[in-house]
Specification:
Blueprint (H helix, E strand, L loop, with lengths): L8 E4 L17 H8 L2 E6 L3 H12 L5 E5 L4 H13 L12 E4 L2 E4 L1 H10 L2 H7 L6
Parallel strand pairs: 1-3, 2-3
Antiparallel strand pairs: 2-4, 4-5
Length: 135
């Protein structure tokens, strides 16, 4: 059983009731809209331990990240939409890996980049600039 984290926003892909058309990369750009609407959002697989570490680090810093848990059956569609958001439609770009942390509407990176930036002391100013921290 997963411990409850106060004030955590979790979006579950299963809440979407309509399916994507073959021409669209995802369901009406819902994930892209969530990335644009949140100062910090963590997109990752449901139950992933690395996603849990990312969430706990951000919560420990005082950030209340939005969380989008991706079910295994929906992973390809979510990844496709996020890659289109990041790279446009180019197919020669790197593949997105979960967990993916978006800060200020842009891909920041995964757990490794988040940890390295935190250790270097650069993460807090980045989070402040994005409006995720006020102090």
């Amino acid at each position: 059983m997963q411990e409850a984290i106060p004030y955590r926003t979790t979006f579950h892909h299963s809440l979407i009731t309509h399916s994507p058309s073959p021409a669209s990369p995802r369901r009406d750009g819902m994930v892209a809209k969530m990335v644009a609407d949140n100062a910090v959002i963590v997109v990752g697989r449901s139950g992933c331990c690395m996603c849990h570490v990312v969430k706990r680090l951000l919560l420990g810093l005082g950030v209340n990240p939005a969380v989008y848990d991706v079910e295994e059956k929906d992973e390809v569609g979510v990844r496709t939409e996020l890659e289109a958001l990041i790279h446009g439609r180019a197919k020669d770009e790197k593949v997105l890996h979960f967990p993916a942390v978006f800060i200020g509407g842009k891909l920041f990176g995964g757990l490794d980049r988040l940890m390295a930036t935190h250790i270097s002391g650069d993460l807090i100013p980045i989070l402040k600039k994005a409006g995720a921290l006020w102090l």
